[in-house]
Input
Amino acid sequence: MEEIYYITFREARMLLASRGKVKLNPDLRKTNRVLEVEIKDDGGALFPDGTLVERNLLEKIARDDGTVYFVSNGGVYKAAIASESGFYKLVPTIPPTIEINGIRMHRTKRVNPLQDTRNKVNTVNPKEGETVLDTCMGLGYTAIEASKRGAYVITIEKDPNVIELARINPWSRELFTGGKIQVIQGDAFEVVKKFKQASFDVVIHDPPRFSLAGHLYSEEFHRELFRILKPGGRLFHYVGNPGKKYRKKDLQRGVMERLRRAGFVGVRRVEEALGVVAKKPEKGIKAGQWD
Output
C-alpha cells in the first residue's frame, strides 16, 4: 500500500519557516504519528517516499486555507473532485469537513465536525449490540462514532464523489476496514424501502439541506423510517435552522408535525444538535399516548 502524506496550509507554513529536518504529522492529526521531512537548500521539502515538494508549491499551499493536499507516489494532489454534479473538496478543519459547491456539510462555526457529530449521536445514544441506520453518510463520522459505542451500523451515501473523498480522508478510514460498518451506495429514499420492518434500534437521519433533498424531509420518507424502526426505537432528524433568523421560517416545526403524523411519539427539539428526536411507540402503546 502506497504511503500518503497529508499537508494543509498549516504544515506548508511550518515547512517554509524551517531548516534542516522537520518532524511533521502526516495524517491531519488523526493520530500522533510523526515523520521526518528534509528541507533542501532551495527551500523544497523532501518527503520519506522521495517526493520533493518544491518551494513555490509549498507557498501556494500555504496561501490556501480552504483545501487539503496530499503527497503520494511522487506527486502532490488536491483532495478535490470536479464532476458534472459539482465541485467537491476536503476542507482542512480538524477533522476535515467536505464542501460541495461551496456548501460545507458540517457545522464549523463555534464547533468542530467531531463535536457536531457527537452532539447528534448523543441524542439517541446507540448502545452495544444495537443496529443503527445512518441515512446520509458523508465522511462517515456519524457511522464511526456509533460503531465506537458498540453498535452495528448500516450507512447510506448517494454520491460516489463523496464516497471517493471519504476514501481519501484519513478520519474516515474505519468506514472501509471491514468492521462493524456497512456502506451502501444509493439514495436513502429508495434504499430504506428494501429494509424489513422493525430492522433498526436507532435511525440517525442527517440529510442535506431541504433545498437540495426535500424528499428526505417528506412524510412519505418519515413513514418509511417509522416502519423500519423496532418498537421503542429512537430517531434523530437533523434539520438545522436555514432561513429561521431572516425569514421567520420554522423548518423544525414542519418536520415535527410530519413525524407525529407518521406515528412517532416523544417528538421534541434538541437545540444543541439543531434537530429533532422522536421514538416509535412500544408494543401496545398507540401513537399520541406519549405526547
